Amino acid sequence: MATHNYKELKIWLKSRILVKQVYQITSAFPKTELYGITSQARRSAVSIPSNIAEGAGRGTDKDFSHFLDIAKGSVFELETLLILASDLNFASEGELQKVMEMTSEIKKMLSSFQDKLNNPKRGTVLTKV
């Protein structure tokens, strides 16, 4: 398998938008959380496109799928941190709704992409922009 061009993957592009949204939302969190939830949410968000890119550069679809698993774990981590931020009144549910919708979409895309990588007979991977 040749490496995938991660810059053309819709999932990578959407996850970059998610990172931007997370940075915008967390910029309003209390300064006391800079090294807590703010930092952790940002790191988990950045981990998503980073692992997609790293996996795309690996030699096999199996390796790529493994990095998509890691990206998916980061999405779940990010969702949990955003729920905690809401619980702690760092952001309103309305502010977080758009980001949570994005995380849901990205989880679905990651799962679908993994399914296609792991079961190539189901069709081609339609991931380009």
Brief description of this entry?
With 129 residues, the chain is mainly alpha-helical. Helix content is 70%, strand content 0%. The chain is elongated, with a radius of gyration of 15 Å.
Please explain how this structure is put together.
The radius of gyration is 15 Å and the shape is elongated. It has four helices and no strands. Helix 1 (10-26) runs antiparallel to helix 4 and helix 2 (37-56) packs antiparallel against helix 3 (61-87). It is 70% helix and 0% strand. The chain has a single domain (6-118), classed as 23S rRNA-intervening sequence (de novo design (two linked rop proteins), Up-down Bundle), CATH 1.20.1440. The longest helix has 27 residues, at 61-87. The mean pLDDT is 91. It has helices spanning 10-26, 37-56, 61-87, 93-118. With 129 residues, it is an all-alpha fold.
